[in-house]
Amino acid sequence: xxFALAEAxxxxxxxxxxxxxxxxxxxxxxxxxxxxxxxxxxxxxxNNVFPDCxxxxxxxxxxxxxxxxxxxxxxxxxxxxLDLELVETxxxxxxxxxxxxxxxxxxxxxxxxxxxxxxxxxxxxxxxxDAIVLNRPTAIxxxxxxxxxxxxxxxxxxxxxxxxxxxARQLWDWIDLNIxxxxxxxxxx
Length: 189
Known about the structure:
Elements: H1 2-11, E1 17-20, E2 32-35, H2 39-49, E3 55-58, E4 65-67, E5 86-88, H3 92-98, E6 104-110, H4 116-126, E7 131-135, E8 144-151, E9 156-163, H5 164-178
Parallel strand pairs: 1-2, 3-6, 6-7
Antiparallel strand pairs: 4-5, 7-8, 8-9
Helix pairs in contact: 1-5
């Protein structure tokens, strides 16, 4: 979805900075690509470019946890079980939300259980988003997607379904009309 949105936004005549990890897809031509592998690298890249952006669409379903320590090389079997300690990763979207000033933020909530809407609403508020896009794990690796857009008031405002390219174009049109054109960092100057 991130690549499809980048393509839709570029087609609408805007500049795009795309932060992405290792993927099999080629990024859309015309966008600046920031290659990352870890959540900490994503946070640093976003913090670096965010001050110069009008807004952000956070599509990445980043890991919520990482191993406490990393082993370099191959860990050979020793005939005993190992304990793996996990620690929370940085919350990139919440960090951006705390520092958004006049910029706008649309987040994605990848949810799989019966509390999907409740979880998406919590993320919308906790991360200071202007809207949140609820989608399901069935979108991962698929050519199609079904999304629900929830606005800042917590209302389900629109539902899009189709190929990821179609959904991305519809979503960008909605964001451009309802969020991006209503936020101007220079207001009040």
